[in-house]
Structure formats: C-alpha cells, structure tokens
Amino acid sequence: GDSVTQMEGPVTLSEEAFLTINCTYTATGYPSLFWYVQYPGEGLQLLLKATKADDKGSNKGFEATYRKETTSFHLEKGSVQVSDSAVYFCALRDTGGFKTIFGAGTRLFVKA
Amino acid sequence: GAVVSQHPSRVICKSGTSVKIECRSLDFQATTMFWYRQFPKQSLMLMATSNEGSKATYEQGVEKDKFLINHASLTLSTLTVTSAHPEDSSFYICSASGPAFANTEAFFGQGTRLTVV
Predict the structure, then answer these.
(1) Are B64 and B58 in contact (CB under 8 A)?
(2) B54 and chain A: CB distance < 8 Å anywhere?
(3) What are A8-34's pLDDT values in tens digits?
(4) Residue B23, helix vs strand vs coil
C-alpha cells in the first residue's frame, strides 16, 4: 500500500540555520503531496502542497519540490526561526482522493 | 482556505461514559470526512472514513462498536467514543474533503484532546 517515510527527529538547529527534512513516498498512480505543521497542543495546519511532478510548493519561506524520479518531497527552509519549532508531517493523498497517509513526523527544535 | 471546526477542543470524562466529538465544515460541503487518532509523539493513524449518508469504513483494528461515526449531513460528522476507558485517551483529529476541491485536498480540524479518568 501507499506509504510515507520521513527522517527521524528530533532535529535541533540554531536560529538562521538551513533546514532540510527528507521525505520519500511509495504510491501507485500520481498522488498529491503535502507538508503539514503541528504546533504544541494544536491540530494540523497545511504548510504547502504539490499536486504533480516537478511542482514546487512554497509558504512562509518553506519549499518542497515533487520529484517523481526519486519519489521524494523534501522540505527546506533557508533560515529557520525559533517560531518554526514544531512537528512537521509529510503526507500523500492518493489519486482516488479518499485517504491522507502521513509520515511519522519530524520534531524540529530551533534554538535562539 | 476552507475551515473545519472541531468541538470540543478538550474533554475529560469518567471511565465508562461516552463522549461525542463534532466535526463541522463551515464553508464547504464535505462529502467525505476522516477521523484520525494521534498518540503522544506519534503520527496520525486513520481510524475511519465516512461518506455523507453512508456507513463509515473503518481501518483494520479499529472497533466500530466502540468508535461510532455518523455523517448525516454535508457539514457535520460526529465521533462517539462509547464506554470510554483510560486507554482511549488520545488526540482525535478530523479532516474533511469535498467536490469543491476535486477531492485532492483535505482540511483539518483543531483536534480534540480526550482524557479518560
């Protein structure tokens, strides 16, 4: 079945450091790919998405490119802030549009 | 973007009682709603998928008699945890999708933290 694998955390960075969180997927067909962020004690917020190969999703300085050849959707940010500390989930939604499959989540800590 | 509202955000109940959680789509018709459970520091596990007017489809290992799901309208789905026990304590999150988004995107509620004492 479809699955998402993302790098284990926690990831600890200093403010203004470069962030990469790796995400790879397995799926039949052509899924849509997402990154969600969860702040402590809160629900999920959509961070960015890409619906087809080579699409780049971007929001709040975060970017991710849908790479079909490597089945990847790595999250990047050039300069992280303390306020970016949260858990980040990579996810895919199958072509039938009925389920969202989540990765295990990666906890990010950003130190001042 | 579309808004999904979940209520309550927190609930504490006594062991053996039932708790109902509501999930509402405020500005779109949600033909499909999903219920997830999240254990501390873990990912979201899909519990069930409900289509408006139909019985919910439960994932393997989820007790349908314990987690009752109703999706009677295009804007409301409810999850009732029956005869709750401490092991049911968790964070429950719903999401909703509909034809307005070509079923390619789902919007999440804020989540409900259930504590059973």
Answers:
(1) yes
(2) no
(3) 889 999 999 999 999 999 998 889 999
(4) strand
